[in-house]
Amino acid sequence: MNRRTMASGAEGVGTPIRDFVRRYAADSPARFHMPGHKGRPVLGCEALDITEIDGADALYTADGIIAESENIASALFGSRTFYSAEGSSLCVRAMLYLALARAGASRTEASRLESSRAEAGRPLVIAGRNAHASFVTAAALLDFDVAWIQPRPDEPVYSCAVTADALRTALAAADRPPCAVYVTSPDYLGSMADIAAAADVCHAYGAPLLVDNAHGAYLRFLAPSLHPCDLGADMCCDSAHKTLPVLTGGAYLHVRHGADAFFAERAREAMGLFGSTSPSYLILQSLDACNPYLAGHRERLAAFLPHVQSLRERLAARGFAEIRIYRRRDRRVSAGKAHIRRVLRRGIYHVYVHARKRRGGALPARGRAHGAAEAYAESAGDGRGRGVSPAAAGHDRPGGVHGTA
After folding, report:
1. b/e per residue, 283-296, with b = 16+ CB within 10 A?
2. Of 27, 83, 247, 292, which is least surrounded by CB within 10 A?
3. Which of 168, 127, 134 has its CA nearest to residue 149?
4. Could you tell me the sign of the dihedral formed by the alpha carbons of 164, 166, 168, 170, in that order?
5. 83 pairs with which residues across the strands?
6. Which residues does residue 132 pair with via DSSP β-bridges, in sequence order?
7. Local structure of residue 221 (DSSP, 8 states)
8. Residue 8's pLDDT is what?
9. Considering the chain, what is the average pLDDT of its residues?
10. Can the peptide bond before residue 390 be classed as cis, meaning omega within 30 degrees of 0?
């Protein structure tokens, strides 16, 4: 791995993709190539929007500037890291393909497919029921069975806790060896699974652990690291654009050092199987430019976390508390004071309400939630607010769950 640009913090971290594109744009060449805008400004970014011209490398067969940038990211994350310009959704499909191919059950490997299915039946993946929609579409594309780990009766689908005990039970009950175990952590409400314990259980049964870490790219830079690959996951995906300064669509596929070598060796093939042959160089430049930022991110987070704890303490001192109201269906809810108290007693809804502090009164007079909406409600005061979950935006809903947002 090339670490020569990792010498002295952010100042020593190179940006080979960004540098190449800037040099090319500065030369103002006649662009006898795609894209069709020819670098002429419409939005303002066109001069930096190129395709796989000579010297620009190619994402799924990278051996030039993209490979160099990915090596820098690999050093930062402590894993074998590959770029995605199509979000974690592409990485999810690639991880699952790799797990099935390793087990000899990928549909694209016809000769191995027939013998595998004759001996062991259809490929199986064990997964938490809060899996993202991209997992469900991957199941359709790759044609594997899913053994779902269901949420507890008092738990919404969005926050299905996959514990080591639940995994052990599911693995012991499986009617065939699973190709992989798939866990979403952090979930859509910020809860995190015990990945280290889950990895121990999975590896005891010979199953690779795949983690959808889309909302947790920053976890590598906490002290100590809570990144899935540092905790024993074989592969994980991070949506850089969710929690890092990266353009929408920028993401990482990570393969843990020590995981089966097959995964890293075939990762580019897997990404190319599902990815566009025209990846956005704007997104690739954004991922590349994020590397110097990440070189100083551990110190940045260490300085920031005390402010988060201080905010929690100040909110608690002012009477704010978290209210969770669970429900079964994903419909719009109007949560008045009496309604909140009623459903709290019944425990059938899952609603968080953002409340603004006001004088007097009791619980919020009115709120609105979409499915498992994330917000906070004031335990005292006449506040009003609306709760909207990260999932309510649409593309981050768990698979098979559809809201009304």
Report:
1. bbbbbbbbbbebbe
2. 27
3. 127
4. negative
5. 252
6. 398
7. G
8. 37
9. 80
10. no
Q: Which residues does residue 149 pair with via DSSP β-bridges, in sequence order? A: 128
The residue behind tokens 């994903």 is 330
Dist. CA 370–CA 356, nearest whole Å: 19
For residue range 197-214, list pLDDT tens digits in order: 999 999 999 999 999 999
Q: What is the pLDDT of residue 10?
A: 62
What is the number of residues in the chain? 405
Cis (ω within 30 of 0) for the bond into 35?
yes
Is the per-residue pLDDT at 343 higher than 90?
no
DSSP 141: H
Element (H, E) at 149: strand 145-149
What residues contact residue 290 under an 8 Å CB cut-off, 6+ apart? 240, 244, 245, 246, 250
Segment 321-342, tens digit of pLDDT: 665 544 444 443 444 455 555 5
Cβ(391)–Cβ(159) below 8 Å:
no
180-184, strands of its sheet edge to edge: 79-84, 251-256, 235-238, 209-212, 180-184, 124-128, 145-149
What percentage of the chain carries pLDDT values higher than 70? 72
**Token digits for 116?**
């595998």
Tokens standing for residue 189: 């409400």
Cα–Cα distance, 17 to 156 (Å, whole number) = 43
Q: How far apart are CA 161 and CA 142, in angstroms?
A: 26
**CA 223 to chain centroid:** 20
Long-range CB contacts (within 8 A, 24+) of 10-13: 10/292, 10/293, 10/295, 10/296, 11/292, 12/295, 13/72, 13/76, 13/291, 13/292, 13/294, 13/295
Residues near 333 by Cβ (< 8 Å), separated by ≥ 6?
Answer: 327, 339, 349, 351, 368, 369
Phi, psi of 253 (to 5 degrees): -110, 125
8-state DSSP, 46: G
pLDDT at position 153: 81
CA proximity to 65, closest of 95, 107, 29, 23: 23
Identify the bridge partners of residue 313 per DSSP, sorted by sequence position.
none
Per residue in 154-165, pLDDT tens?
A: 777 777 789 999
**Separation CA 104–CA 40 (nearest Å):** 48
- Pick from 333, 326, 330, 404: nearest CA to 368: 333
**Do residues 366 and 386 touch, judged by C-beta distance below 8 A?**
no
